[in-house]
Amino acid sequence: MSKKIILMRLKDVIDILFSSLLIMLSTPLLMVISIAIKLDSTGPAIFKQQRVGRNGALFNVYKFRTMVVNADQIGLGYNIEKDDQRITTVGKFLRSWSLDELPQMINIIKGQMSFVGPRPALPYQVAAYTQHQRTRLEMKPGITGYAQVNGRNNIPWEKRIEFDVWYVENWSLWLDMTILAKTFKVVAKRESIYNHDGISYDFGKENNDPLNK
User: Fold this and answer.
1) pLDDT-based confidence at 203, cuts 50/70/90?
2) How many CB atoms sit inside 10 A of residue 211's CB?
3) The pairing of beta strand 58-64 with beta strand 46-52
């Protein structure tokens, strides 16, 4: 068994242990957020959506609902504006502090995600990947990742994917710890939640994205 495989298994163990601990410690907060969402707007507290995981495996990602029900079918669709009318009052707060991602600890416990890794993509996005870009599927998707601490939504999708590929090819536990440390800084400053023009673009919908040309 290679050293990398041993370290990857250690990463999985650490993910499950810490996510289990965090869920227990944050249960009161999770309950308060769930109640606030239900009181603020009609619909479930938890939003589920099919995403692509490691090696192309499909799974349902969990997030706190921050938008009105069926938001992807109205307005800008998968593109999201800073002051998008589809975002609920509670949802705006959750998104600004990335608290909507907390339910993904369940995905970690289920072995579908990790604390650090490429963000989980939608199936139709993966279908447009080049063979090189599919390298990002060789590791479990993460709640945070290398692209998230190096520009997040303020960089085009092609660059984000390139960052993710670099992460997969250069992965180490030390790199994960570095990304986690930077994540706290990014969240605290609420950096790059939206693109420089105030929109969080869907894959292939940016003017500077070659996939949209």
Assistant:
1) low
2) 17
3) antiparallel
